[in-house]
């Protein structure tokens, strides 16, 4: 079954061209399932059944896994079995009749405009790292791009003169997102004063680099934003996506249409973007309840 899994991951890589994070998620979920099968002396994928999958999902539930996690595991299994069925390695798909548990839509954590301003003001802008950090935070809030997209940017992806950034999102979908004047100003300063002091190799193509002169990692950025959140005294939960969520919520609060926000965020399905509309309505209700004399 291990060989089948490697074959499946190869298919997702070459044929489906899924993002590295998605491939890693599929691989991790399916490795756990195969370990579950081995522990029950199930030698091949053809020996598994609907009950095998039900027992596996039940075990995940007993371990306290959230419905969203169980749903993701089932989606991975469905994709795997569907692949096996297409190759005629199995006669039927034991996962076909199984439905994912209902997932309660959780509203994303966002910052207020004031909190964003305080957060963006934290980098000192006096040394190369501070100039870089200021540029990264401004860019994230100006465009709403994912952190994975931010750290993947190359020099040719950011056009400060024309005021736009080009990034490759999930499923290798390319999109162009406009830049605001504040972000452009900080990016120009980074290219002029910050990046030249950080890079070790003049031929380096990564836009944002760390103190070693190599491409900044997701973990590196995570430490950076947590540091500035502490400095700013922000008590709300901060994640690498906080500025992305805040970008979308603030646009909608100020009258942007849902389709435009969907395009800028790079969402394939508008239902993913609609969660921000729900968030905006929720906040409007809070404002009404707090300020209307007869609420």
What does this structure look like?
The termini are far apart. The longest helix has 22 residues, at 270-291. Helix content is 58%, strand content 4%. It has 2 domains: 2-86, Orthogonal Bundle (DNA polymerase, domain 1); 113-290, Intergrase catalytic core (hpI Integrase, Chain A, Orthogonal Bundle), CATH 1.10.443. It is globular, with a radius of gyration of 23 Å. It has helices at residues 2-14, 20-39, 50-62, 67-86, 113-120, 128-143, 147-152, 181-198, 218-232, 242-253, 258-265, 270-291; strands spanning 158-159, 164-168, 174-178. A hairpin with a 4-residue loop joins strand 1 (158-159) and strand 2. It is mainly alpha-helical. A 3-stranded antiparallel β-sheet has the order 1-2-3. It is built from 12 helices and 3 strands; from the N terminus they run H-H-H-H-H-H-H-E-E-E-H-H-H-H-H. The mean pLDDT is 87.
Q: How would you summarize the topology of this molecule?
A:
Blueprint: H1 2-14, H2 20-39, H3 50-62, H4 67-86, H5 113-120, H6 128-143, H7 147-152, E1 158-159, E2 164-168, E3 174-178, H8 181-198, H9 218-232, H10 242-253, H11 258-265, H12 270-291
Antiparallel strand pairs: 1-2, 2-3
Helix pairs in contact: 1-2, 2-4, 3-4, 5-9, 6-8, 6-10, 10-12, 11-12
